[in-house]
Fold Penicillin-binding protein activator LpoA.
Amino acid sequence: MLSSTFVATKAGHSKPVRLTAVIAALLLLVGCASPVPQTPPVNIQDEANANADYYLLQLQQSSDDNKADWQLLAIRALLREGKLPQASEQWEQLPKNLSSVQLAERQLLTDELEVASKRNISARSTLDHLDSGSLSANQRMRYYQAQIAANQGTPSLPLIRAYIAQEPLLIGQAHQNNLDQTWQTLLQLTPQNVNSLVINANENVLQGWLDLLRVYQDNRQDPDLLQAGIKDWKNRYPHNPAAKTLPTPLNPVLNLTQASTSSIALLLPLSGQAQMFADAILQGFEAAKNGVSAPAPTPQALQTTNPDQSAVISADLNASGAVSTSPQPADQTVPSIASITPSQATNNVQVKVYDTTSQPLTALLNQAQQDGATLVVGPLLKENVDQLSGSHTTLNVLALNQPETPNDDPNICYFALSPEDEARDAARHIWDQQQRQPLLLVPRASFGDRVAKAFNQEWQKLGGQRVLQQGIGSADELRKAANSGGLRLTGMPIPSIPTQPNVTIAGETPPVSSSDEPRGAGGGIDAVYIVATPAQLTLIKPMIDMATNSRSKLAVYASSRSYQAGAGLDFRLEMEGLQFSDIPLLAGANPQLLQQATARFHNDHSLVRLYAMGMDAWALANHFGELRYLPALQLSGTTGMLTAAPGCVINRKLPWLQYRQGVVVPIS
């Protein structure tokens, strides 16, 4: 119970009064004298990190003096939360009489609404008329971000200027992201774009960025020159933000050290069905190591017991590791380790060849490390390559195949003559030729499905619609089809990984076909990509010509699997118009080397391709350190133009050729 107090009266008597009554009276007086509780102070030019519901609640409870401020903040929050219709509705309800500060915020929100609605052209126009000088630091950061978003997908001077203007307003990771995005935009400029740029004399930061781009492009193929060029650039532009903090992709360049190739361990299957493939790769590796265009002498340890015996082997060394062989020649005697002696090489690099069929992979890697190896090239067979990540080796490894899903190990790169890689190159080539509705004719097997999947994934990245796939059977089946009406060109859409809503690819949101019904030649097909043997192609190409009239001829493409060297004039005329790809060596890039290689391997182009792979493996081994840290590095190899994709998977861009009036000609 609360205590009581006594109040003295005039008569001198005391009268008890309850304290609770006094407190109640005081509270009543205070309540009568106080106004309605005020909403928190608001600053529309500052951060707005609360959610939209909070701002809408404050809008309902606020007085007329600051209702517009809360409404402007609510629109910002709704935009940030992706609630575009609600944001537009609140924008429409904004009062007409606004202060100058509120008008500037309203205009900025208008631009942000335009960008969010993908009306980039309109957004760019209105942004140009907004006076950024009247904005606070936070508003300027949003203003430049709106400019960046409105110019995305088109590397241009306005986009670069927006990144540069936004940079001083950012800190921490946001600042680093800004530098990285500025650099990526510069890299997307074509030489014509760069040469046509006109900048102001006072744009020193922009001039510094353009000079850094020139240094990079002029020296990117030589790590030493690039390192020296970047250091010199930093001295010339000490106040450029990139001089203080380099873009992330350039940081490793300054610390790049060449991977040692003083001792190379070459891991190959030196016995069993794949022995002849290993032999071809080893000979190519030696030829490149010796620095001569002619094939290197065959190592004594790998010579057959009957050197005059010819053996034709059809090899499909792909990402699944499938290898089909014809009967092997006479038994060969091969030691588990064969050394390339100094007398066979013109330099001091020591190479040891380890037989992957003799010991487990982990044991061979440990043995190679004990022997002083600084770099491993191989293994070749997929089952061995799949074990690489689990081996936890610290050696740098250039694998000569790749797993289904390569791990991004910092010390492992993957180089394979993969049909999937060839299919991705075909997708890019067909896209560049403005074809948009391709049909793939591939073997009815897992091999064909893998090729189709790789083509389709690349096609989707380019912004294309679904690709159609049609299985083809053996040459006998195709002959029966030719005798019974020909080949009906139909196809089913290749299953794709579902695309997230509102995700754009190559600046567009690709439409997705809603029907899985087969489509025929009359249903929009404009190109056919064939993965078939020469015997199958001989039957397929004439049937395609018969299925289409002269006014709606399809563009026809084929993989290197179909190429038939030394084909007669009748075959070349029958293939009129067909485009196909193959490695540069077989496409005529080095006629003398091709003549020597085909003579060595008795015109077996499967082995010639592996020989070329061995040559490129040597080149890649000598640039191992740059493969991960110089994404622009390109090596002109005998198997294609070589570049490193994410995860250090080596991509090959192949030359394309075409049959024209009985002659094979390159496509420019």
Q: What stands out?
A: Confidence is low (pLDDT under 50) at residues 1-17, 19-36, 293-346, 498-522. The radius of gyration is 35 Å.
